[in-house]
Amino acid sequence: MPPEAEAYRSGHNSWSPAGWRGLAESPLRIADQQRRTTADDDRWDDPVRHHSSWMLVVSDGEQAVLLGALEGDTPRTHADLDVLSGWTETGQPGLWVLLKGPELAVFERYRVLLAARHGVRDRDPGTVWSSWYSFYEDISRSRMEEVLVELPGLGFDTFQIDDGWQDIVGDWIPNLKFPEGMASLARATLDQGLQPGLWLAPFIVLPDSRAFRERRQMLLTDSRGDPVVAGSNWGSRYFTYDYTRDDALEYLAELIHTVVGWGFSHLKLDFLQAAAVPGRHLVPTDREAVYRTAIETIRRAAGEEPFLLGSGAPVFASLGVLDAVRTGPDVAPMWTNYATDDPSDALARNALRNAVERLWLRGLIGIDPDVVFARHARNLLDEQQMQWLRDAATLSGFRGLSDPPAWLTDEERDDLRRYLGPLPGSTRLGRHRFLIEDREVDFAPALHGAASRYAL
Predict the structure, then answer these.
(1) Fewest C-beta atoms under 10 Å: which of 196, 198, 219, 428?
(2) Could you tell me which Gene3D superfamilies the record lists for this protein (predicted)?
């Protein structure tokens, strides 16, 4: 490939940056080591060479070469001006393919090969209302009921309660703001003609949780016997379980069985990357195989009917088990922020970039680009930026919002009903160009254009 060729990386988990960089340029990566522990794979970070999980593409814009794994022990790849290489973390042989041809064709061929190897779970997720991007953790039974009764007739299928219902991350019991419990809220949701959805982060525990104290023996440890830090959030480090232990798997199955028993049929499973962090397992096992054992345990406990959405999920290791994965970092009602250049930060432009760059996965597994916005209040996005987010969600086949109806004008409600109607047909025209029905959409200005007009 010529020096002006570009390299595509998919990244390790939902939040890892995905996209293209010039082959002669520095790689697309998260610079901060603490953030990488959560949002990418710190073990194989490389500040010089382009690197990715499972697959990497080098392209001159027309012809491309794709090196990709179909299976293997934590497959990793890298590329520079001279070498395109792949390996497994354990050194055991993997199953690899080297595909050459037109750029779009090599992505399509790889998708077909992955589907043949792992199967396809690409169920219709319906349309989802989530509490996160309006109220964040400030939720209660009364506040959720105020929203719930206003949703029928707007076009939503699922009402999903996000972070803030539990006692603490790790202790998955309702807090005092939900005195009637979660089963009662699931029934109230069904009474409104909607499917009940619930957020939980089943693989992680905060150090102040009862689970951290009482199930210490189940935690994944390092070579010194200390609990492995699996990431950071909520102003704290968090830890994970060793899913080569029978007791940890039994506890996981009990948790999922309980939540499904409450009546929730749509589970947003967050911070899933924690089950794939390096550590000293009781039974020495490849870490992506450990992750897969954990999500297979969830699937068996939940059954085939509940919709399982993974966020922070190692994308390729989730194939055939989860119904959908988040494809990017959290969105936000602002485009960019002068204070950060981290491609995994919660910003609309970051979420859009990953959503677009991972659209080739559609038809292999469900892809969630995160929510769009109907509201103009409490929102710094302009009309074009809001439309780009909507178009990416339409192309992903996964449409969700967090706007409470009370925040919307009558005109915005009417616009929302139209948007949540039947999903229009679409066609891919190029790397960043698409047709949605007869309207051409080009995301290149969004991905490569100027920053927001707002000084944030």
Answers:
(1) 428
(2) Aldolase class I
Its pTM surpasses 0.90: yes
Token pair listed for 86: 């792949």
CA distance 149 to 146: 6
Percent of the chain beyond pLDDT 70? 98
Encode pLDDT of 90-130 as tens digits: 999 999 999 999 999 999 999 999 999 999 997 999 999 99
Distance CA 30, CA 89 (A): 20
- Shared domain for 322 and 205, answered yes or no, is yes
Are residues 64 and 100 in contact, defined by beta-carbon separation less than 8 angstroms? yes
Give CA–CA dist 305/328, Å, rounded: 25
Find all residues with CB under 8 Å of 177, minimum gap 6, and list them. 139, 140, 141, 164, 165
Q: Which of 118, 146, 169 finishes a domain?
A: 118
Structural domain including 12 reads 6-118
Q: Are residues 100 and 191 in the same domain?
A: no
DSSP3 helix / strand / coil % (the chain, rounded to 5): 30, 25, 45
DSSP of 34-56: HHHHHHS-GGG--SSSEEEESEE
Rounded Cα–Cα distance for residues 206 and 289 (Å): 24
How far separated are the first and last CA of the chain, in Å rounded? 39
User: What is the structure's pLDDT at 450?
Assistant: 53
Mean pLDDT computed over 205-221: 98
Tell me if 74 is assigned to some domain: yes
Q: Quote the CA–CA distance of 310 and 185 in Å, as a whole number.
A: 22
Co-location of 93 and 201 in the same domain: no
Q: What angle do CA 335, 341, 347 make, to 5 degrees?
A: 30
Final residue belonging to a domain, choices 118, 151, 172: 118
Condensed to tens digits (0 to 9), the pLDDT of residues 258-288 reads 999 999 999 999 999 999 999 999 999 999 9
Burial class (CB in 10 A: 0-12, 13-18, 19+), 4: exposed
* CA distance linking residue 72 with residue 317, whole number of Å: 10
- Amino acid letter at 163? D
3-state secondary structure of 370: coil
CATH of residue 171 = 3.20.20.70
DSSP state of 13: B
Residue in this structure with the two tokens 């005092």, named with its chain if needed: 176
Residue 197: its H or E element: strand 195-200
Our count of domains for the chain comes to: 2
Identify whether residues 102 and 196 lie together within a single domain.
Answer: no
